[in-house]
Amino acid sequence: MSVMVSPFDAHRDRTSEKYTAYPADVLPMFxxxxxxxxxxxxxxxxxxxxxxxxxxxVGHTRVxxxxxxxxxxxxxxxxxxxxxxxxxxxxxxxxxxxLRRVIAPGDQVVVMPPVYPPFWDYVRExxxxxxxxxxxxxxGDPDPYDTTAGWRMDLDGIAAALAAGARTVLLCNPHxxxxxxxxxxxxxxxxRLAAEWDAVVVSDEIHAPLTHADAVSLTSASKAWNLxxxxxxxxxGASDRARGWFDGLPVEVVERTGILGxxxxxxxxxxxxxxxxxxxxxxxxxxxxxxxxxGTALPGAGYRQPQASYLAxxxxxxxxxxxxxxxxxxxxxxxxxxxGRDFGRQGTGxxxxxFGCSEETLREGLARxxxxx
Length: 373
Known about the structure:
- The chain is of the alpha/beta class.
- It has helices spanning 7-13, 17-20, 40-51, 63-76, 91-102, 118-125, 155-163, 184-196, 240-247, 251-255, 259-271, 273-297, 325-332, 359-371; strands at residues 27-28, 85-88, 108-111, 129-132, 168-172, 200-204, 215-219, 233-237, 311-315, 335-336, 338-339, 350-354.
- A 7-stranded mixed beta sheet has the order 2-8-7-6-5-3-4, sandwiched between helices. A 3-stranded antiparallel beta sheet has the order 9-12-11, with helices on one face.
- The two termini are 35 Å apart.
């Protein structure tokens, strides 16, 4: 059974940004929210909590850290110490609060565009200064069947930034908007650079369930199980140094965790893997549809299959839509995409498409884009 629903049906029933930002005749393929039904264990846990009136402030329990540690061990072979896990509202809050602990005002923080647009805001809100070290782009023409993503970290550029005074790297892995899972060798090299310069890596891994060291990992069930509105994210440390940062967090950072988000996350990480497997199968099928159909629908468009998540980075520079194609396509195609320039200057002429939808919806979106050429 499909986990996806029609966005036109969702338009009538849902109130989130995805379904209310544009008129009902616009196909919403922008924000990173899927057209999915909830996983049954998550739905049942939330219904039970609401029925029982368990909707107050989040409690002080070890349940979620322990459940996540079990999930991480099963899925990735990652040994997580539950004592080094804290929760908060969402990954954006986690990023800002962790950065506040590890940088001094004005410190340089390495960011690797094209990347999730709020990264610049995280650094500024925490009092830091952004140092851009763009990812190295793929060589040659894009192959839509290439799932290596082609992009890679500029380790020499990161080394130069650290030598120039940066002491923190804000990593995105898997990397949004590219769906790039950074190679193990690159991550090991980054860890060595961090150790050499006594630097800290803060890693946004919110899309990790959709793949797959002084470091702090930031993650959540929100992307893989489509739970962004329930407000719960995890900060995962790996050292006593991280414990010190966590212990220095204002108490409200943890207290702001949504109790329904906590409940939903426990259910997702403990019982949600069968649903996740079905979701990943549907996303893999949609990824192939894009590879097979995009060249016909939009001749000249560039695309590489992402290694993770449900976001496709489209190079539309060969089409007559200018530097910000997404801004035109809302009116011309009645399709809402994410604007490429928002991810950094490297996104000029690009757009991000969300294929976390039914195959029927994806094909409708491609047909609309094709008709707008």
